[in-house]
Amino acid sequence: xxxxxxxxxxxxxxxxxxxxxxxxxxxxxxxxxxxxxxxxxxxxxxxxxxxxxxxxxxxxxxxxxxxxxxxxxxxxxxxxxxxxxxxxxxxxxxxxxxxxxxxxxxxxxxxxxxxxxxxxxxxxxxxxxxxxxxxxxxxxxxxxxxxxxxxxxxxxxxxxxxxxxxxxxxxxxxxxxxxxxxxxxxxxxxxxxxxxxxxxxxxxxxxxxxxxxxxxxxxxxxxxxxxxxxxxxxxxxxxxxxxxxxxxxxxxxxxxxxxxxxxxxxxxxxxxxxxxxxxxxxxxxxxxxxxxxxxxxxxxxxxxxxxxxxxxxxxxxxxxxxxxxxxxxxxxxxxx
Length: 336
Ligand code: UFG
Prior knowledge:
The model has no long low-confidence stretch (mean pLDDT 96). The chain is α/β, with parallel strands linked by helices. The protein is built from eleven helices and 13 strands. The two termini are 38 Å apart.
């Protein structure tokens, strides 16, 4: 049975991936200090699978603690989710982001090298494309013009992985560029747990619909799009999670050296207003909203070319925007 370390395994995408890894016959081991998560995620994982997650509660920048995890667990591979991800916070506190996001990857690569663990899947983001040169963006589109310190940490981490795999020809790396992950597990036992006021659209929609927020502000309706609001590629977190399993299986079949990048999106762009109206339709609830000014740093439109993920990994999305917004609402209701 293949054992995989899942850093950030108690987080939004990490927890859903833990479920899919288990379903695929892997043994996923969580490394997460729960700084951006809660115990309830671990209980949720147990409810879904009937298995108590194994978790090491440590900071991934702590080399000694990471080494001990590898000594104890003897993993075959790693999926590295652990990172700070709030764009606005990264502008206010860039050093936190450079320290945690880059420091944890440096530490991880060193510990992997010490323990001769060669297979790594890394969480990257479509933010590395910046504005995007043409839509949909392919993996060959230029990168490096990120709009925030958070985005630059992903650019730097990708470059670090390319350099590391040149230096160590045995390393086999897949970098997955996520578009906009939304939704929750259909069981409503796990989902996104935003801290404080949500920055991202869908948690804000669900909280506004639940009456926890006064109203949603749609950031701009004067963009050059079909209804004036920004376009994004919203992907169900369960579809996203499944891609990680395929990526690990694909890596295992390849010859080293390997450092490949894949887009993970639906390939379809939806506007903010379409997301709001779809939410209202599938759930039969109203979302109170107003139109506000544009948000600094937002790109007009971003969606993925998914041909490479389909052709190479054999991955395609199975769930719709409506499915994701239904599951996000079920999760909001479960949160109470
Ligand atoms: N939006 C609103 N109102 C809100 C929140 C968001 O109108 O209250 C709009 C945004 O302006 C944007 C869209 O909803 O047009 C999506 O915004 P999100 O904050 O949910 O997502 P982003 O596309 O800004 O961010 C995503 C990832 C980041 C990543 C970024 C790169 O969540 O991790 O893409 O572009 F850095």
